[in-house]
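**Entry details**
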Amino acid sequence: MFTRRPFSQPDICAAAVDQVSSRIAPHVLRTRLIPWPSLGALIGGSVWIKLENEQHTGSFKVRGAFSALVAPNGQGEEERDASSHIVTASSGNHGAAVAYASAQLGLSARVFVPQGASVAKVDRIRSLGATVERFGTDGLDTELHARALAAQTGARYVSPYNDPRVVAGQGTVALEMLAERPELEVLIAAVGGGGLIGGMAAAARARKPGIRLIGASPAASPIMAESVRAGQIIERAVGPTLSDGTSGGVEPGSITFPLCAALIDEWIDVDESNIALWMRRGYEELGFLMEGAAAVAVAACVSSAARLSGREVGIVICGGNVSDDTRSRVLGGLA
């Protein structure tokens, strides 16, 4: 049985999330929270889904990007970060989010992606106004390179998760969910680097101490979950997964590790067949194709049906960016 570890400041991001919420409000969408009746019936409870696939750039990631790039001045008004040159690392949603936010704020963005990043993803990030460069074969290698280069050049590095302002921005997802549906007893989100679930947990538990947080990971890449179980950030090879948005290692010393170790109640690993199944079921029942990471959270809910019976459950549909190839494989039953 998993036991949460003690943490000296379990509400480390709670106040920051509150402050960030109003600051980024002009820049992000307050996405819909809707019921999924058939999923609720399946678990014998009530299920509500937060549609971050309808967010700018199709992902929750713009919340953290704007939170990192828009800072309050002494009068409580907004000002841009002191550095107008932004560097980040991501071949997917975070890279697109930083590119979009930078363009909206008049900043220049330089995004590093792994050597194997798809041409479609790179083209998308470029189309949002960023310069894209390739480095490394693993996402963590790319992150470490980008951080080092930013330090050398004086640029502002925006981590996908290892930045308190990014984590606070992602935590606004939980604020909106609980404001609209305070009856929620359980929150479930996919986990890669832990920025989304860490920020959500800090914000939610400060408001509702008894709320249950479940982190969901693809079985092919459960690095944060395994790190928490081991009591330290681990390194291990990861396999291919439809949940590409959560795939890869965790940066050494990441601030999200103690948050996840202290605040997440349960960790669930999901195999590829169930990720594909719920991508298809979501498309059939909801009319849109969620990305693999979102389906990981949905599949985790289903696998916990017995424990969630009679509960009010909130799931984050964290994004909807699916490549044409993946769409064809999933809907064709080939994945």
Summary: The first strand starts at residue 33 and ends at 35. The chain is about 45% helix and 15% strand. Residues 6-11, 73-79 have pLDDT under 50 and may be disordered. The radius of gyration is 18 Å.
